[in-house]
Write a structure and sequence with these properties.
This protein is α+β, with helices and mostly antiparallel strands. The chain has 5 helices and 15 strands. The relative contact order is 0.16.
Length: 297
């Protein structure tokens, strides 16, 4: 891990100006990852992580006592938030809501202090909440499938998007699958983006029914890769680039260059030290495509 940040008089750790209490608390027994190390990791990756999450409503997976304890999702403001964690008020379908968002590294570290491990942003920023800035396909394999099947699905989906004039990025999720993501220009509305994603997923499933499925019904997903397009909806979220996962060993969701896909062994192979090494080697951020528009029919 990175060099240790100074400790406050109370035994707490000060990271990027934020006091992290109980830094010695182990959040993952596998790998012996502590809360202090998690904070130092997020401080180090903040320049790469924040562009995809800053000023986006975000859902948190909080595990105050570690991943083996009680974990819960939070997206609404509550007590104990730091001054750099903000509330975003909005209305949807005649109801009023308030969700969380952050803008900077201090806000990010304040989330860690309150026990957050996973970060799941919306696909739109609060400044343009009705127009997503990304299109996401989550490739979720049936348990019995080898990882090579997911890799093949990612390549097939990339080719389908290219045929429609769209350049896509790749990310291992830190879980079982891969994300194929298209940066958008924040000009298409949610319904159009979701409809495009649904149409493409269903087309691939219809053309290769033994390989892919575009429905959540588990009975229909046996032996197939589920092309999940449902993250392209108002209030839907997806795991952030460089977010740690609340899973044994604290794997990380990492954006990759397509040239790395062939050698990828699993979607959860990267740990905190691996990502910090990638950043040191300047491999942390594959060059993203510019924002694009959903093609017209």
């Amino acid at each position: 891990m990175t060099a240790k940040a100074p400790k406050a008089a109370s035994g707490a750790l000060v990271v990027a100006g934020v006091t992290i209490t109980h830094p010695e608390r182990v959040i993952s027994e596998i790998g012996h990852v502590t809360k202090g190390e998690l904070a130092e990791y997020y401080a180090a990756v903040a320049p790469a992580l924040l562009p995809g999450i800053a000023r986006h409503p975000v859902s948190l997976l909080r595990c105050p006592t570690g991943i083996d304890g009680d974990c819960f999702y939070q997206r609404n403001p509550g007590q104990g938030l730091g001054p750099d964690v903000h509330a975003f008020p909005f209305e949807h379908q005649g109801k009023s809501f308030k969700y969380l968002y952050i803008e900077d590294q201090k806000g990010l570290l304040e989330l860690v202090q309150m026990g957050a491990i996973e970060l799941h942003p919306w696909g739109a920023a609060i400044d343009a909440i009705d127009h997503p800035d990304r299109l996401i396909f989550d490739l979720d394999p049936a348990p019995e499938l080898p990882f090579d099947a997911v890799k093949a699905a990612a390549l097939a989906l990339r080719a389908q998007l290219a045929e429609r004039g769209l350049t896509a990025g790749l990310k291992c999720t830190g879980g079982k699958g891969l994300h194929v993501t298209v940066p958008l220009a924040k000009q298409d509305a949610w319904p159009a983006v979701k409809e495009f994603a649904r149409g493409l997923a269903e087309e691939m499933a219809a053309e290769s029914p033994k390989l892919y499925v575009a429905t959540m019904a588990k009975a229909k997903r046996v032996g197939k890769v589920f092309i999940d397009y449902l993250r392209n909806d108002y209030t839907a979220t997806a795991i952030a680039d460089y977010s740690v996962r609340a899973r044994p060993g604290a794997p990380v969701a990492v954006p990759l260059a397509w040239s790395e896909l062939d050698g990828l062994q699993s979607a959860d192979q990267f740990r905190l030290d691996d990502v910090l090494a990638r950043i040191g080697a300047r491999r942390s951020r594959p060059k993203p495509a510019r924002g694009q528009r959903i093609p017209s029919k």
